[in-house]
Specification:
The chain folds into 4 domains: about 100 residues, Gyrase A, domain 2, CATH 3.30.1360; about 80 residues, no CATH class; about 130 residues, HUPs (Rossmann fold, 3-Layer(aba) Sandwich), CATH 3.40.50; about 110 residues, Isoleucyl-tRNA Synthetase, Domain 1 (Orthogonal Bundle). It is built from 20 helices and 14 strands. The strands form 4 sheets. The protein has a 5-stranded parallel beta sheet, sandwiched between helices. Strand 12 and strand 13 form a beta hairpin. It is globular, with a radius of gyration of 29 Å.
Length: about 600
């Protein structure tokens, strides 16, 4: 709220300085206002004078002084309309070419009132202005239950969806079901083998089959529900039908797991539907008409610039194959990648399209048919190589620039007892999300997945997450919220909460002011996460708010203070509670009132 007003004031002052002839005509620049690293330099600062020094041919200090001379310092009511005017909102000072701004105590008091007035909507901004956005996340192959590799994906995606809603977008949440291709056939054969084994038949698993206990469980469930009817039909047909039943069971379990994580979806989109609907072939024809589809070695390739296919890599069997992407000097080459594999390599026509071939109609469906902009994909680091292909396809299709945004996250390592956790209870080579939820609960799980930048690979100690003390960061944050709830209950029971002072709230203690400055930042954090798509900022911010409250509560007594002081501090505690609760809920975590 405040930063937007400061940008407007600086823009107006710059225009006035030029109109008065104090500054020459200057190119338009992007005016930024940030928090100084050193608190003594104020609450906000702008480097606009440094940006204009070269085109103005003037020292930054002089430019800053001229701009500040034309600044109109608004009344607090200009920033917080619901609060009665109580004098200037901030002061301005020029230091070393920067213009530094410091909020007045009256402005800080109005901020507390505004937070309480907004209540559960505190932190909402209008960045999206009602535009449609989509976050597609999860989207693991439906060939087994959800593992911790998927865990970071879905928590990051859900938190981004929560953020975009708070930022003023209409948000659609989607899971893309990879129900086409050879992995589905192999999964069906694996489930059929486990189904037959559950009925007492010695049926071997297929080559490259799925070995996990979750597939064994799915096979046994089908045997219990369907009996031996699939043993009385041709094996290929049985494996195909059982495979679809297996996918349905796996997705049923995944949906249950997502519900445990407080994650909901608006749609589960079938990859197969892209081809049965004809959209896949339609997109191939569109690219053919533009000269971007080339036959090479019996396969159909996408060539971003229409040039002949360069020497390829792999055997044309891999889902990942495409030619080299950089020249000898490291410069990017036009993207070339297989769309439809050769029938000499893949006999079954339903299995010839690559993942990339499906990505193209899916992107078109998202942006051009359903109107999502941005359409955000959340992918694991193992899909890093797919990023340039999808962006190249978006350019080739003529999708609006920036409509497709891809978030790549690094995988994590979990530690327990000083050892890396490798084994799950029900799967031989991966730890299931459900296993971890049984150990530490959904809130701690989500916190793990959000606690570091998505481009950081890290190890997290599960033992710390089980502790109920300040060493556990989840406990520390949630306890801060519960502690304030307890304070408010006692205030109500014991009559601390008196009438509001006639002349408004007042905060003079440094710890009071430091806490207010911190909780005022929530809309800025929402904007930061919505624009950078980096949700770890919430965990950092929540810890800082909880820490600032602890310092305030240690330094500033509420009970026993003069009535107007006690009331003001109780309102500050309430505003802090609202800030912590909103931050926790943006992260998809609970805000307990008792612990």
């Amino acid at each position: 709220m405040v930063r937007a007003h400061l940008v407007a004031q600086i823009t107006e002052a710059l225009a006035k300085a030029q109109a008065a002839g104090d500054l020459p005509p200057l190119p338009k620049i992007n005016i930024t206002v940030e928090h100084p690293r050193q608190a003594e330099m104020g609450d906000y600062a702008t480097n606009v004078a440094l940006q204009l020094a070269r085109p103005a041919k003037m020292p930054p200090q002089k430019i800053a002084e001229l701009i500040s001379r034309h600044l109109s310092i608004p009344d607090t009511q200009a920033i917080f309309p619901a609060s009665a005017g109580r004098g200037p909102a901030f002061t301005a000072e020029v230091v070393g070419g920067f213009i530094n701004f410091r909020l007045t105590p009256a402005c800080l008091a109005c901020a507390v009132e505004e937070i309480i007035r907004q209540d559960a909507r505190w932190g909402t901004i209008d960045l999206g202005k009602g535009r449609k956005a989509q976050v597609e996340h999860g989207s693991a192959n439906p060939t087994g239950y959800a593992t911790i590799a998927t865990g970071r994906n879905v928590v990051v995606g859900d938190t981004l969806a929560n953020t975009l809603e708070a930022a003023g977008y209409q948000v659609h949440r989607e899971w893309y079901i990879n129900d086409a291709g050879s992995q589905v056939r192999i999964f069906g054969q694996s489930v059929f083998a486990r189904y037959a084994q559950a009925l007492g038949h010695d049926e071997p698993l297929p080559e490259r089959g799925y070995l996990g206990d979750d597939v064994k469980e799915v096979g046994a469930l089908i045997a219990a529900r369907e009996g031996d009817r699939f043993l009385r039909m041709p094996k290929e047909q049985a494996a195909r039908e059982i495979g679809q039943l297996g996918i349905d069971l796996v997705m049923e379990r995944i949906k249950h797991t997502m519900a445990r994580l407080n994650i909901r979806y608006d749609n589960f989109f079938s990859e197969k539907s892209l081809w049965t609907s004809g959209l896949g072939e339609q997109m191939l024809n569109l690219l053919r008409a533009r000269g971007l589809v080339i036959e090479h070695d019996g396969a159909l390739w996408f060539s971003e610039d229409g040039s002949p296919i360069r020497s390829g890599q792999g055997s044309l069997r891999s889902e990942e194959e495409y030619t080299e992407t950089h020249d000898d000097e490291g410069k990017p080459l036009p993207v070339q990648a297989v769309l439809i594999r050769s029938p000499r390599v893949i006999p079954n026509p339903e299995e010839r399209p690559t993942y990339f071939a499906s990505d193209i109609p899916y992107a078109w469906n998202k942006v051009m048919i359903r109107g999502f902009n941005p359409a955000i994909y959340v992918w694991g680091e193992d899909h890093q190589g797919d990023v340039p292909r999808l962006y190249a396809a978006a350019r080739a299709l003529g999708l609006p620039e920036g409509a497709i945004r891809i978030v790549i996250y690094r995988f994590i390592t979990l530690m327990s007892g000083g050892q890396e956790v490798r084994m799950g209870k029900r799967k031989g080579n991966a730890l299931l999300i459900d296993d971890l939820l049984d150990e530490i609960g959904a809130d701690a799980f989500r916190y793990i997945m959000l606690s570091r930048s998505i481009d950081t690979k890290f190890a997290f100690d599960l033992d710390v997450l089980k502790q109920q003390n300040d060493e556990n960061p989840v406990y520390y944050i949630q306890y801060g919220h519960a502690r304030i709830c307890s304070i408010e209950r006692k205030a109500l029971e014991e009559g601390w909460e008196t009438a509001a002072p006639a002349d408004g709230l007042r905060y003079d203690h440094p710890s009071e002011q430091a806490l207010i400055r911190k909780i005022m930042q929530l809309p800025e954090i929402v904007e930061l996460v919505a624009t950078t798509l980096q949700p770890h900022h919430y965990t950092t911010y929540a810890r800082e708010v909880a820490g600032a409250f602890s310092k305030f509560y240690e330094d500033c007594r509420i009970k026993g203070s003069p009535p107007e002081v006690a009331y003001a501090r109780l309102m500050l505690a309430r505003a802090t509670r609202l800030t912590l609760a909103r931050t926790l809920r943006l992260m998809g975590m609970t805000a307990p009132d008792r612990m």
